[in-house]
Amino acid sequence: MIKVVIAGTSGRMGQALLEGIFADSELQLHGALDRADSPRIGRDAGEQFGLATNVIISADVDKTLCGADVLVDFTRPEASMGYLTACEKAGVKLVLGTTGFSLEQKKQIEAAAERIGIVFAPNMSVGVTLLINLVQAAARVLADGYDVEIIEAHHRHKVDAPSGTALRLGEAAAEALSRDLQSCAVYGREGVTGERDANTIGFATVRGGDVVGDHTVLFAGIGERVELTHKASSRATFALGALRAAKYLADRKTGLFDMRDVLGLR
Ligand code: NAD
Questions:
Q1: Per the residue annotation, which of 93, 154, 215, 230 is the catalytic one?
Q2: pTM as predicted
C-alpha cells in the first residue's frame, strides 16, 4: 500500500483526489492537509463521502507527513513551496499539480528533485500529455509559414492566466521550433498591435462558468489551419493521472519527472 497525503483537501482537486484514493486498493489515505483557516480543519477527510476514515484534516504539515510515502499537492504556489521544503525534510516524495509558479520557484523545485522524487506537471491528464507530443510533431512539420496560437478556457474561479497547461503547450511548440518561449510569447493583444511577427507564439485566455479546461493549439497557414484540441469534462482525469504519478514514484528515490515519464511517452 502506498501511503498518500493530500494537500488542499477541501479544494476542487482535493475532493477529486480523495474520491480516487478511496476507490483504489493500492493507495491508502495517510493524511489530509489544508490551510490553517479552512473551516474543514479538524473534520474527518471522508466526511463528505459518508466515510469515517479516521484521517483528520490538519494544518500541521510535519506531523502529517511523518510516515507517509508521497504528498499530492494541488494548492497555490506559495503553499506548494512550503510543502516542497517539508517533503525534502521528511524524505517524502511529491506529486506537484499546482500551477502558476515563477521561474525562480521552478528552479527550487528542480533543486529539490536532487533529494526526493517529484512528478511536476501542469496537467496530469493522459489526453493533454499526448497532446504535448502531438503539438511537437505538428510544429516540426508546420515549422515554416504557420502562425502558432494557443487558446485556453477555464472556469471563473481560476486565479492564474494563461493556464500552466497553455504555457506547457507553448514550451513544447517553441522547443520543436527551436525558439525560446520567454522571448517569443505574446500574452493577449489590444489596440494597434501592428502586424503579427511570424516568430511569436500567441496566447488567448477565456474565463467563465464551470469550464474544467479546454486547450487548442492552432497552426494557421495560408489556405489552411490545423487545430489540436483537448477538452477536459471532469477533474477526475487530473486526479487519476496524479494518483498514477504517485504510484510511478514508488520505485524512484530522486529525480524530476513529468507525465510523459509516468505514461512512458518519452
Ligand atoms: P481550489 O481553490 O478549489 O483549491 C485550492 C486548495 O488549496 C484549497 O483546499 C485551499 O484551502 C488550499 N490552499 C490555498 N492556499 C493555501 C495555502 N496558502 N496554504 C495551504 N493550502 C492552501 O483550487 P483547485 O481548482 O483545486 O486547483 C488547485 C491548483 O491545482 C491550481 O493551481 C490549479 O491550477 C491546479 N490544477 C492543476 C491540474 C493539473 O492537472 N496539474 C488540474 C487542475 C487544477
A1: 154
A2: 0.89
